[in-house]
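Hey, resending since the last one bounced:
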Amino acid sequence: MMDWTDRHCRVFHRALTRGARLYTEMLTTGAVIHGDRSRLLGFDPCEHPLALQLGGSNPDDLAESARIGADYGYGEINLNVGCPSDRVKDGRFGACLMAEPELVARCVAAMKAVVGVPVTVKCRIGIDDQDPEVALDALARAVVAAGADGLIVHARKAWLNGLSPKENRDIPPLDYGRVYRLKEAMRDTPIAINGGVSSIEDAAVHLEQVDGVMLGRAAYQEPWRLLAVDHLIFGAPPPHRSMHEVIESIFPYIERERAQGTRLHAITRHLVGAFHGVAGARAFRRALAENCTGADAGLDQLREALSLVPQDAAVRVAA
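The structure tokens again:
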């Protein structure tokens, strides 16, 4: 989710669900240690519960990055061992570390030694020619022995040789059963499932077998689905009953950000999928593209875009 789930996106998603845990985009240890921390790590208090996702393979650097993240107030530190992008592979982090479970375990142990918040690992079921029955168990048992507080498993292999990062998100077949078997074998370890989960109803089915479900692209590209999370998963009323209410609820945040020099488009780019299959959705997207990208664009332009979707046509959920 690099370049997607930035702080503006997360504020929007938090207005859709109170209960779901939000994750940052993956940040490299080099960026966290040497980059602009306030820009990279800053977040609005409303985003909690919130986890910082890190990419790296040097235990010392990961420990320092985890400490920085915990000091910033993140409630969980997540090590990504599942991203298959070329720049990740070239930097010796992400999915290629599935081949080095002992190194990943050392990284986890180093992070656990310096932070008091949970440390989790996100991984694949295997890479390339690995046998998922062997590879996933080896990684899971190694990191849990090192102190990991849970795993998030993308239920696909990553083919680092032969498939592009985009192809790795769709072509390797999903094997949810493999993740279920991991949970059965490691009953005391929280296990969440990821990959191809396209609806909250599907997530509820997975929760009969595992402890958590992570949504990635579905949550970003079709954020309206998140309106059902609190009602269907947590048995609680949603923060808002329609996408109109959600977007209007973040107007004060947008005003604060605009006053600090943030361009409106940096926020509204995350709203493109807000409406789906309803009257005015296409006009709304066009207005975002044409009227909300300029340096001077503000709430007036966003209000005009929102007015193109009739109130009674917007997706609503039960209270």
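The chain has a mean pLDDT of 93.

Sorry for the duplicate.
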